[in-house]
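Hi there,

I know you've been waiting on this one. I reran it after we fixed the sequence typo, so this is the corrected version. Both the input and the resulting structure follow.
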Amino acid sequence: MAKSGSYLRPLILLSWPAVLEQFFGTVVQYVDTAMVGRLGADATASVSLSSTYTWLINSVMGALGVGFLSYIARSIGEKNEERVRQAAGQAVLAVLAAGLLLTVATLAIAPYMPVWMGAEEGIRRDAALYFTCINAPLLFRAATLIFGAVIRAAGDTKTPMYIGVFVNLMNTGLNYLFIYRLGFGAVGAGYASAAAFTAGGILMTAAFVKNPVLKFRVSCVRPQKQVLGSCLKIGIPVMLTNIVSCSGYIVATSFVSSMATAVYAAHSIAITAETIFYIPGYGMQASTATLIGNALGERDVKKERGTAKAALFLIFSLMCVSGLLLFAGAKFMMSLFTNDREVIKIGSRLLRIVAFTEPVFGSSAVMEGIYNGLGRTKYPLAAELISRWGVRILGSFLCVRVWGMGIEAVWYCMIGDNIVKALLLAGRLGILDARRRYEKSNKETGSCEQ
C-alpha cells in the first residue's frame, strides 16, 4: 500500500487542479446550455450544431499541446533546461500558425455548416452567426490550449485552473447580459464566448511568459527543426486521432440531426449533461502524461509502471461512483437544462443507457494519457479508427438509415465504441509492458553470464 500511495500522491496533487478546472468549466457550460435552453428547442439546436465542430477544432489545437507537453515533461525529467526553453519558443510558433489558419478556415465554412449538419431552415441563420462568433477569436483559444498544456508540463496545473475559472465565470456573466438583458438570444451566447475566449488567451499567454520553469526567451521564437519535429511527431498522431474521433462524431450527429427537433435536442442536452461525470478522466489525462513523461526522462521504468497502475486504479474507482450518480440522477440532470417534458424523458433514458460504461470511458482517457507521456501516439490512432468508424459510425448508419431504428440504437453504438477502444488500448499497453519486462530480464541474465 505504501508503494501505491507513493505514486498516487503526486498524481492526485497534479490532477486535482485540472479536474477542478474542468468541473468549473462544465458547470458554466451547464449554465450556458440552460440559459439557451430556456429560449426553446430551436435555440438549443442552433447552439448545439456548433458543438461537434468546436470539439474538433479544440482537439486539433489540444493535440499540438500534447506534443509539447510530452516533449517538455521528458526534458524536465532529463533536467535539460535548454530543450525546455527551445520547446517553449516553438510553442509560440504553433499558436500563431494554428490560430490563424483555423480562424480563416472556420470563418469560410460558417455559412455552410448548418446545411452540412442537416439543420432545419428556421435555425440555420442563428446557427451560422453563433459559429462565426465563437471562432473569430481562435488565435486566443489556441493560446489558451497550447500554452496551457506547456504550463502543465512544467508542473503547474493551478495557474491554468485559475484562468479557466475566471474565464468561465466571465462567460456566464456576459451570457446573462447578451442573451437576456440585451435580447440577442442564442447568438448572444456566441458574443459572450468570444469575449471570454479572448480574455483567456491573453491571461494564459502572460502566465506562459512568466513561468519560471519554462524560462521563455523571445530569441527562441524561431523554427528549430529538431525540437519542433520531435513535438510534432508526438502531436500529429494525436491530432489525427482527434480528427478521426470528432469527424466521426459529426457524422454520427448528422444521423441524429435529421430526426425530430425534440430528439436532437434531447441527444445534445444528454451529451452535455454527461460531461460532468467523466471530468476525472480528462482531468487526469494531462497529469498522467506529465508524470509518465518525467519518468521516461529519468529512465525509471518502475516509476512509469507504478504511475500507470495508480492512475488506472484511481480513475476506475472514481468513474464507478460517477456512473452510479449519473444513473440515479438522469432525470434531474436533464431538467436542469430544459422544461420540455418530452426532451427530459428521451434524454433521461439515454443517460441511463450510458451510465454503466463511465468507468470504461474514463479508463480510456487515462490510457491515452499514458500513451501521450510515452510518446507512443500512433497506436491510439489505429484504435480510434477501428472503434469510432468501425463500430459507432457503421453501426449508427445501419441502425438509423438501413434498419430505421431510433436514438437509443445510436447510443448503444456509442457504448460499443467506448468498450472496443478501451480493450484495444489496454491490450497494447499489456503487450508493451510484457515486452519491456522480457527485455529487462534478458539484459539482467546477460549481465550475469558475463
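Quick highlight: The chain has a mean pLDDT of 88.

Best,
R. S.
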